[in-house]
């Protein structure tokens, strides 16, 4: 019998609270456009929200927070919007580094890095190294992330290990160990803001048994109070993982 992925045997968080929350932060563009402002204003406001949510997580019992910041499909947007977003990511890392370190946040990134500019890549590696000892909150930011891209890269790594004779009959755990999220627990809960009810290539492997919450609130309007309310509701859910 095939060995189950380690992730499916992991616990569901304590006291019915999700330990790992993942968020598809959607609706920045519409938020700005509704006010007659450029889309980038919405992205800047969205980044401010990330700071607040990050600060709120530990007190809400959330130990892992994964946020979708830029997908492999988002390169289709205008050059102005893409470059503006990249600047926002770089500035977030530069300005938040001290605060995140002081607050015990460990920051990591998932997604393909080679397409990002060299300065941003340096900032990402720098803050990962600087915060590596922290554990109060594990913050993972998905930049140039796509689940299909991640699985394709993972398949390539796995094939390499098989070719080198390190693995004979690959298991789910072997593939999992080749993902960008190797060693991270699976998300218990995935939240998407802005009323869209699709997953848009976010964590297809990791969220196989996650609970989902879709809220009409646009990301720049999403507050720690909204998050707290969703987390309370999560406690009422029964997760069965295929059991009877
Ligand atoms: C989410 O907001 C942020 C990114 C995808 C980078 P959007 O920019 O997708 O906002 P809407 O969906 O157009 O309102
Ligand atoms: C998903 O939002 C990606 C991020 C939030 C970073 P999109 O706005 O790109 O998704 P679609 O295009 O509506 O599916
Ligand atoms: Mg969107």
From TrEMBL:
It holds the Pfam family Prenyltransf. CDD domains: Cis_IPPS. The keyword Calcium does not apply. Its EC number is 2.5.1.-. Binds 2 magnesium ions per subunit. The active site is at residues 26, 74. Mg(2+) binds at residues 26, 211. Its cofactor is Mg(2+). Substrate binds at residues 27-31, 39, 43, 71-73, 75, 77, 192, 198-200. PANTHER family: DEHYDRODOLICHYL DIPHOSPHATE SYNTHASE 2, DEHYDRODOLICHYL DIPHOSPHATE SYNTHASE FAMILY MEMBER. Homodimer. Belongs to the UPP synthase family. Catalyzes the condensation of isopentenyl diphosphate (IPP) with allylic pyrophosphates generating different type of terpenoids. This is Isoprenyl transferase.
């Amino acid at each position: 019998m095939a060995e189950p992925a380690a992730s499916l045997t992991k616990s569901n968080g304590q006291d019915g609270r999700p330990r790992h929350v993942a968020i598809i932060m959607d609706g920045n563009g519409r938020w700005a456009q509704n006010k007659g402002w450029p889309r980038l204003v919405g992205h800047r406001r969205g980044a401010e929200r990330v700071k607040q949510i990050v600060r709120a997580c530990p007190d809400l019992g959330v130990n892992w927070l994964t946020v979708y910041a830029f997908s492999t499909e988002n390169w289709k947007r205008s050059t102005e919007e893409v470059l503006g977003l990249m600047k926002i990511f770089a500035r977030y890392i530069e300005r938040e580094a001290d605060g995140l370190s002081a607050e015990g946040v460990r920051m990591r990134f998932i997604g393909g890095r080679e397409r990002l500019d060299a300065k941003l890549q340096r900032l990402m590696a720098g803050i990962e190294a600087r915060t590596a000892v922290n554990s109060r909150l594990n913050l993972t930011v998905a930049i140039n992330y796509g689940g299909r891209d991640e699985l394709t890269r993972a398949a390539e790594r796995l094939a390499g290990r098989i070719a080198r004779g390190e693995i004979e009959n690959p298991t789910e755990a072997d593939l999992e160990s080749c993902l960008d999220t190797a060693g991270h627990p699976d998300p218990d809960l995935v939240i998407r803001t802005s009323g869209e009810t699709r997953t848009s290539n976010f964590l297809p492997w990791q969220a196989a048994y996650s609970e989902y919450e879709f809220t009409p609130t646009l990301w720049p309007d999403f507050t720690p109070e909204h998050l707290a309310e969703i987390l309370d509701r999560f406690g009422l859910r029964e997760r069965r993982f295929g059991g009877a």
